[in-house]
Amino acid sequence: MNKTVIAVLLLSLLAFSEVYAKEEKNGNGRHLTGNAPSYFVHAFDDESHEEFYISIKNPLFSRSLAWMDRYFSGKKIIYFAYNGKFDFFLNSRFSAPVISRGQNPGLFFENEYEGRDGFSIKSLRLGWYHESNGQHIETQETFLITENAEDFVSRGWDYLGLDFKFSNNRENAFDLYLRGRVFCDCQGFGLIEGKEDQIFWKTVTEQPDVRDFNGLSTIFNYAYADYIRVFSIFRFGTARLEALENISYKVGATLGSYFDIPLTVFYFKGYGKEIAFYHEKGEYWGLGLELW
Known about the structure:
Layout: H1 3-26, E1 33-34, E2 39-44, E3 49-61, E4 75-88, E5 98-112, E6 120-132, H2 140-144, E7 156-167, E8 174-184, E9 186-187, E10 192-193, E11 215-224, E12 228-237, E13 248-255, E14 263-271, E15 281-290
Antiparallel strand pairs: 1-3, 2-3, 2-15, 3-4, 4-5, 5-6, 6-7, 7-8, 8-11, 9-10, 11-12, 12-13, 13-14, 14-15
């Protein structure tokens, strides 16, 4: 991909985050908002590259859900969400390619509960999601003749997601997220039968399953005003009891700055650094900017 296109994309995202921040301060919200924290960092990995993660959501229905008031208190909205992860090999590969690592659109219902004193439930999410890496290699023959073939192994599956958020409802917020995933043997929002998670490029004694390394997550998030945010993510497999021992974790912190573009740093160790090789264990550092 042309470097100029990447530069324009990055600047556009920075501009969007700045405009969004100003509108939030002025009380004029946008429909399109951030979902999970998005960032652009340098990855201290085996191969030097930049990592770009974007997470956004947009409401689809809210007023039409008034009939649910009898079952749920608080604000109820149906959202479309998108999470995307890309690696940008700026100085380490010819022509500085951008590789898609994860494409994760979904539809979810969210119920935001009224604020309560003390530590209590803040929101509930229930949705259906598709996760893939947008790649194309599906056979051993193609894998063996392709340069950097590991970057293009095709992965894809759907899952039902259930998230709970608990918070102390204070300025210096402590949040706890409990996240469950039930994987479907399908993809494309149920339109395509079967999921792509098998090893096809070499002979293995036993095929792994994405559920061996994913399915249950806990997220701890502590924010001190606008100056610092400390977070940790722990993920476990749920295919069987032994899969709970397949632990992956990510810890980090985000520091506010004068220019309202916070610096972020994180460390990841475990399985699924890239979903193409969700069954392999790895680790890396990231240092850069949190966009929103």
